[in-house]
């Protein structure tokens, strides 16, 4: 048991180390660092997706919209209203949490596909507001000159590497929250809802409130990611909040592995890298990428992490059978959620 | 899907995947050799090569490739070394942040000193980079003056600012008895800025501006509704414009519903393209930008027919094609003058001198005769085109607006 | 008043197009429970194939639409076999992503074959008709009439013909239908073929009043999803009512409020309706 957990932590540490040393290994490669920063930013939003979709089983297609709210709260407050980045960032978190919760009150009355399309409409309305309410959002012209976060002491966020670590810090936070939720009673409650709402209800789970909170948590993650995105980019337009972004994020999480702790990170980095590689095909790239996406969902529906998961589980089950069968099997069932 | 813990090996494997990705990224980062001693000059381009604006992006790509081919035929010599010019294009689907990523990739991996981006969102996103992080000269193709307001020292604004058009356009059409202006532009960044500019100008000349019926030309399934609404207020002049083809369709719809007034067409729509999409008579009595074929520059004729041959007569050469053709040649000449292929600032500083030395075959549609301090390429014989009621083009000289 | 009549007809024509496109989508949903985000790209391909028959082959307009509908029916079947059939046991998130992949693919294919630039399709029905001072083009009247005729035929097909009845049977009770000897595979393919053919008819009708481009379907996608949700997923009468309702709301809002509001109204109506009735206007027994 002890050994098992420590090895597991070694695995996570390896990912962390890879992410931490990457910028030093890539000294002078600002472009690659930019890709890493972008992937990490998106990964934070994907963690939000993971809570509502991966754990709770609700497909929310408004995610790109809430990402956009995060972007615009930070962008508009720092440029037009002279706020500091940190206060604007805090505002973005509060605004996305509150609008997310309010939106959830109505959205979560619907179920399954209705919920999916309903939230898609919400996402699109958010996009329309951002792109057409010119007097407040500058419409299609976007916001330019968004400042970098104010640094502390020797930390200067206009350095790409500092910005990368800032994003990474929030990414680690998102991963940790997911990890903690999964291990806590909250996680079990959410998974019970995913499995069957009626069943969860009958065993005394407050399904409505829990879904509500999961939804608000997921939009808050999107808001955090959006706020960081604004600072990383410096210039943003409404297209950063389009419905397409939602599908991109959805792709990240499916490739990484729904409901897993490491899935969002793995998916975001792998797909970002994949898309960038296919750039060389220019207008032909989607002829290749389209079928690649389809093949991924058909042949690896559980995503990279989910697939590896199953593989490890099978191997361990085999080994467990060979050794002290009853004891190992018991711990197995306990741990595989 | 149990993740929480089946996962120790799995996490190690996930780490391996992550690490592998990073290594691969690093490898692809470190792989390119830097030019410098000679050989290749890379011109970068990030534009929409897929998605809704792909036609626009591909057109520009053709114009740039034509310039590259012609330059290689003539031979390029920088600081005594012979060079071949090469165009590297990346797709950004009109997304600002993708354009910026692409620009950084082109600058760092392909060592492109000059990078062209043809949309104002992408330009502004790229400007956040070339003011310190990555060094490249930005060939900015957007007539939105906002791209100069950022005071970016490494920007070269290619087309005329649309601010220059609104006053003369309004003056030409707002004759006696003409009072009401209908607004039917496209709801893009560009259309929105144009709409407010034209409205202001019209009001400053004591005209009445009607309801703003801007629609997104790319998402509306039927233009009849917005057109009917605009016509119901009985405008004397209608401002409109977006991509040429839907613009032509809206004009046709308006004429079909009985509109007889004039059109004030924003610079994104081109007469030569609209003529192919609707009965050209519908376009009579409107003002817009000068069709490329109407220029009488030394290279115009050869360029128009070369483009025609290249695309099999499928579409006419428009100013986004010709202006990119010109500016690629100008950028490379600036490298020759500056004696460097990788110092963006030196290249930028040399553009003024280079403008007078570019081979005449590259003078197609108002070759720049001056470069402003802010980096705006300008031609002193600047004109607008009015298509009169007989379908003839009349040209009126206009002044460049202050940047 | 003239303006109202004008916009009424514009709205009806738009509604006809929305209906034809939305019915295919709702059928696929009702039978297979697949939210097919690639439906808009089938519509787009339908327009291009019609264009191909019209210009490159040179058959008359109506025949071109018919031939294109057949071609697209085959494309629909292939889509079902190659993409959605292997996913039949997966949750709908996977269908959605696979559909997005298919959408990317179709758009790229159209761009490679026909180019990225806009195309214009000519219709033999030219000129306008004057009704109460309003000028309505013949093409729009044709759209309204065809939509009504096709919808009537479709209703007949589903209620009266053997093949159509199998669709309805599966829609109502999948297990029961297969016990009764109806092959779900055949029905799936039939449904996809029908949906793609209907989308093609819609596209062939609307193409002459708009332009062809590889992204023409993407703009429609969101709207027809709003329509079928509004009407109730899987409900054909719901899709018809929803289609006309949203089209009229869109046209009238942009006329009497503002064009930006017109763009948003479809989604605002959707959100408002679902807030009150979470299962749409014509809730059917699909909510299992």
Automatic annotation (TrEMBL), chain A:
Q: Which InterPro entries does this UniProt record tie to the protein?
A: ABC_transp_permease, LivM-like
| Protein's cellular compartments | Cell membrane
Keyword line = Cell membrane, Membrane, Transmembrane, Transmembrane helix
How would you describe this protein's topology in the membrane? Multi-pass membrane protein
GO molecular function annotations of the record: branched-chain amino acid transmembrane transporter activity
Q: Which Pfam families match?
A: BPD_transp_2
Quick check: keyword Cytoplasm in the entry? no
Would you indicate the residue range of the signal peptide? none
Major place of residence: membrane
Transmembrane ranges, per UniProt, are 7-26, 32-53, 60-79, 85-107, 114-133, 161-181, 249-275, 287-312
Protein name in UniProt: Branched-chain amino acid transport system permease protein LivM (TC 3.A.1.4.1)
Task: Give the UniProt entry's GO cellular component terms.
Answer: plasma membrane
UniProtKB/TrEMBL annotation, chain B:
What Gene3D superfamilies does the record point to? 3.40.50.2300
Keywords attached to this entry: Signal
Family membership, please give it: Belongs to the leucine-binding protein family.
Signal sequence, renumbered to the chain: 1-26
- Name of the protein: Branched-chain amino acid ABC transporter, amino acid-binding protein (TC 3.A.1.4.1)
User: Boundaries of each Leucine-binding protein domain copy?
Assistant: 40-351
Superkingdom of the organism of origin: Bacteria
Please tell me the species this chain comes from. Brevibacterium yomogidense
Q: What PANTHER family does the entry give?
A: LEUCINE-SPECIFIC-BINDING PROTEIN, PERIPLASMIC BINDING PROTEIN OF ABC TRANSPORTER FOR NATURAL AMINO ACIDS
Keyword Transit peptide present in the record's keywords: the answer is no
Automatic annotation (TrEMBL), chain C:
Record carries keyword Transport: yes
Protein's cellular compartments: Cell membrane
Record GO biological process: amino acid transport
Q: Which GO terms describe its cellular component?
A: plasma membrane
Key words, A-Z: Amino-acid transport, Cell membrane, Membrane, Transmembrane, Transmembrane helix, Transport
The way this protein sits in the membrane is described as:
Multi-pass membrane protein
* Protein name in UniProt: High-affinity branched-chain amino acid transport system permease protein LivH (TC 3.A.1.4.1)
